Amino acid sequence: MTHLTIALDMMGGDNGPPVTIEAAVLAVKEYSHLHLILCGDSDIIRHGLESYSDLPEKRLEILHTEQKVEMDERPSSALRNKQDSSMRRVLELVEQGRADACVSAGNTGALLTMAYYVLKTLPGIDRPALISSLPTSGRQKVYLLDLGANVNCDSEILFQYAVMGSVMAEEVEGISKPRVGLLNVGEEQIKGNDQVKHTAQILSSVPGINYIGYVEGNDIFTGKADVVVTDGFVGNIALKACEGLGKLILNEVKRVSGKNLLTRMMARLALPILRKIYARVNPDQYNGASLIGLRGIVVKSHGNASSEALLYAIKEAMHEVDRQVPTKIKHKIETLLMERP
Amino acid sequence: MTHLTIALDMMGGDNGPPVTIEAAVLAVKEYSHLHLILCGDSDIIRHGLESYSDLPEKRLEILHTEQKVEMDERPSSALRNKQDSSMRRVLELVEQGRADACVSAGNTGALLTMAYYVLKTLPGIDRPALISSLPTSGRQKVYLLDLGANVNCDSEILFQYAVMGSVMAEEVEGISKPRVGLLNVGEEQIKGNDQVKHTAQILSSVPGINYIGYVEGNDIFTGKADVVVTDGFVGNIALKACEGLGKLILNEVKRVSGKNLLTRMMARLALPILRKIYARVNPDQYNGASLIGLRGIVVKSHGNASSEALLYAIKEAMHEVDRQVPTKIKHKIETLLMERP
């Protein structure tokens, strides 16, 4: 297998280096062709690595940076003032071609802003999108985008999102002719706001996209579509509302467990199953969201992620490198722009 | 207690008269001061009532209508062509002051369109909203609006929604100075689209609203706010996404129950609890959503509702009559419009 290089933001995330270091070690031990560039405070990283034995040191390159982007820092301030940060460095390594992809568990807003500035968007793409896969009751996952990269999207941007989501589903998930749905308040043609109606017109006119029409909020989880497209405002709120509901259900089960012996027993038995299901339906916890539409691969792991979750994000990045997602998006959008009437 | 009259759309809902008749009977038996006007096909209603004994017939008035609005009928067609429908009649009874409120489990879009046409909005209110209460992990419920009455809302309309939600929380739920949050993709001032930012400015300038700032999707269920305001596009999608997730979790538990003896046992024990919780977090199933901002009280029960759920919607309507919700909204908006700079 050919060599593959990923730049890892070691300072990002709520839990910082202890978690990022463990994830890095797990990753290089699992994949012998993986080379990691660990960006961050070199003393901390070196010290952290000392507690592991049998490390393939040649595949764990450390790149020192003086700064780190704080989790609550304003994106504009991070962009201006954190030019020697671990987050900035991993993006620059991708831009310079020294890394095939980068992964960060840091501040999402700062990562979005910096990635857009450092990597720029692909030709034909106006704005990057944050995309993640979610479970469905069907056999396959569904890709939902945008999860919050852009809160003001016109129909042209939504069209580009449909193209990008389609490429992700086809290349990463291996779905042939992925069914693309547009998130709306009803399935009828007359429903929705102007932005959605206009996007539907564009998508219907392009044979290269398998557009299946409007889908409703509940359809996200039914497997009706392989890709669900919406703007970052709606996508972010829908995803977070689901996260909130998941937590509420867990809390409710805990609450009833105090009531009487029977419910207590039942709830205690139910909790492990529920936690497992919650982890599966809460992509933030187990998965990385990808920032797509850029001239490089950027995977965002949840700030509160464990080393296993961060490892998952590294695997996601490796998979996108393998499938050459940015190149595929570039080709697809070029082809479709020629198809459009 | 004073006499209270509610007009009930007997033909609405997926299950039709058998369910609406049972709900009507349950309601008049539970509340001796309740008078119901049953609108619909008088033969069917009379025949349906025959299977019940000891009915307070004087409090069950039947009003014959020739037509019914179909569940999949286009709202514009229902408005034009169904002037002698049970749905239209219940709204007219409210408009004429013959009923204090009306309840329908029929086609939501048609009900919205007809109610807006027949009842008109209150002075100071441009558009009605669909509102419902949801459970939280806190002690109190949260009111979420708009759930889909208007997909294009400017900041003026969102301000009016904040006022209406505040009145509902105060009058119906009994919360003093309800905390009003504006749904957004982040809590920071700089987040969000222009519409949300402008609404935040308006809400911050009005002392009569206890505006607590932006809340995120997951905050809907945490009890952080008593009222969460958003436009009908976002509210509808967020609510339905939660409904979809709830169903997915139920299905997942059923699925794992086939795996081995232990998970099967655990899942079977967990299912009843989960179903109960799902019913609690799925407002469509147990509750009525109210159409507010009109010169009259309109409660919408879920189309697939059972007689118990429809009874719940009737109680909700009775409660809103008791608290004089439309009058309170009218006074509140008048006061606040004077407060505004």
Automatic annotation (TrEMBL), chains A, B:
Keyword Transferase recorded: yes
EC main group: transferase
Pathway in which the depicted protein is active: Lipid metabolism; phospholipid metabolism
Molecular function as annotated in GO: phosphate:acyl-[acyl carrier protein] acyltransferase activity
Protein localization: Cytoplasm
GO biological process, one term: fatty acid biosynthetic process
Keywords: Acyltransferase, Cytoplasm, Lipid biosynthesis, Lipid metabolism, Phospholipid biosynthesis, Phospholipid metabolism, Transferase
Enzyme Commission number: 2.3.1.274
Pfam family membership, one: FA_synthesis
Main location, first listed in the record: cytoplasm
Catalytic activity: a fatty acyl-[ACP] + phosphate = an acyl phosphate + holo-[ACP]
InterPro entries the record matches: FA_synthesis, Phospholipid_synth_PlsX-like
Domain of life from the UniProt record: Bacteria
Cellular component terms per the entry's GO annotation: cytoplasm
Subunit details: Homodimer. Probably interacts with PlsY.
Its biological purpose: Catalyzes the reversible formation of acyl-phosphate (acyl-PO(4)) from acyl-[acyl-carrier-protein] (acyl-ACP). This enzyme utilizes acyl-ACP as fatty acyl donor, but not acyl-CoA.
Similarity section: Belongs to the PlsX family.
Name of the protein this chain belongs to: Phosphate acyltransferase
Organism in which the protein naturally occurs: Lacimicrobium alkaliphilum
GN (gene name): plsX
